[in-house]
Amino acid sequence: MEVATGAGRPKPDVPLVALSGACVHFGAVRALDGVSLTVSPGECVGLMGHNGAGKSTAVNVINGGLTPTDGQVHYGHEDGRKGTGAARARACGIRSVFQELSLCPNLSVLENLRVPHRDLTGFGWRKSAAGRIAGALDEIFPGHRIEPGMIVGDLTLAERQMVEIAAGFAGGPTPPRLVILDEPTSSLDASIARQLLEHVRRFCAKGGAVIFISHMLGEVFEVASRIDVMKDGKIIASRPASEFTQQGLIDAMGHVANEKAAARAAVESSQRIGEEVLKTPEGLSARKGEIVGLAGLAGHGQAEALARFFMSRSGKLTRVKDPEAAFVAGDRGRDGVMPLWSILRNLTLTHLPSLTRRGLVDRIAEQALGADWKKRIGIRTDNLGNLILSLSGGNQQKVLFARALASSAPIVVMDDPMRGVDVGTKQEAYDMIRTEAASGRTFLWYSTETDEVCQCDRVFVFRNGQISAELTGDGITEENILAASFQMQGAGA
């Protein structure tokens, strides 16, 4: 069994990677504008910034995926040698785990490991791969139920993220020395995320290093020894994590949320909520204008319940122009974006029937709809005609969110819709949800973040595919949600 432990404690004064004045330009766009940073053994660097700040570009320069337009990037080898390029990055044990999962769904877990671990060749490679990935999964996520021979497409989103993380930390001839984690807990529930954070601390304590990118500020403060803040392609602040407060970090990143939103008085739920508009066989129900949360440990039936309800209210020709439900995907790569289409076409996809005049799409109306929602939800792009994959993961999620809210559907089904979305944009989205609910729209909202679930009017906690508790009002607390997640109670408890 091969499990990485931070690889040999290289000298802490020799940086694993050093960027000096690194710039990356895409035409007139300065994605990276003179970034200088170093990462040394034993460090966990929290890389923070709103969507589009340049974090992903910086990561791709560090792992050798992008060559800087200007400036330099150097890697420090264990024996003191230095070098540049993607090959040198791999040789120095730099691994990346991206928010947009890169696993091949038609291959097994162990077969997927062979893609990044190029030494897995020849007779007996399957046995070696199975031992390597199983060892990493056992080390990071004790109690997991993932077998090396399982087909990735059959795994839940959380399990796929666990596999990708395990592959990043798995040992081999060149063990990991610097692991880049981009929104690693975005699909994990609280207990599994806790296991990962504990492993990050152990890994760094043994001489490894981690670059940790997350919009969950509490997690960053738990593991980061230093925090670097990016804005508009530059690092605008870099100091020990202990010298930041959460509010100070938000201030450093810069506010993008509507300042008036926090002061806006919420409509009393008793005035807003009307008659019952849905009820499912599982016992899930919602009323007009109600925000209903689905909670519990990931993989316990929440997403399946949402999918069953959505499919029961969609797919019929009579509902094309007047849909009964809209959907915001959590797994945007599988269920959300059309990767070969533009941002605009992805945003307006479900609105084509209402934009059609005499069999032709009214392009002027389509452009107006896209421009309106680009402004309202803050999609960071200069041109809606660009491919959807030109956006950061968080901005892609904004497009899916806009697609649903721009529809006329009275019910919006949301499957963990805030994955990878920055703090400011989340606040804007929460305000939009409350505003839409005040006008009579109903929301079914599954989230892996307890803070989001606690904003709902009513919460159904799932365990083993069943509703273990129904919480309302002051009963919607993290403690009650966790208690119901681990111990079956009667529905309505």
UniProtKB/TrEMBL annotation:
Name of this chain's protein: Ribose import ATP-binding protein RbsA
Keyword terms: ATP-binding, Hydrolase, Nucleotide-binding, Repeat, Sugar transport, Transport
SMART domains to which the protein is assigned, alphabetical: AAA (SM00382)
Coiled coil: none
UniProt cross-references to CDD domains, sorted A to Z: ABC_Carb_Monos_I
Similarity comment text for this entry: Belongs to the ABC transporter superfamily.
Gene name of the record: rbsA_12
Pfam families assigned to the protein according to its UniProt record, in alphabetical order: ABC_tran
GO MF term set: ATP binding; ATP hydrolysis activity
Keyword tRNA-binding part of the UniProt annotation: no
Domain ABC transporter span(s) in chain numbering: 14-257, 256-489
Entries under InterPro entries matching the protein: AAA+_ATPase, ABC_carbohydrate_import_ATPase, ABC_transporter-like_ATP-bd, ABC_transporter-like_CS, P-loop_NTPase
E.C. no: 3.6.3.17
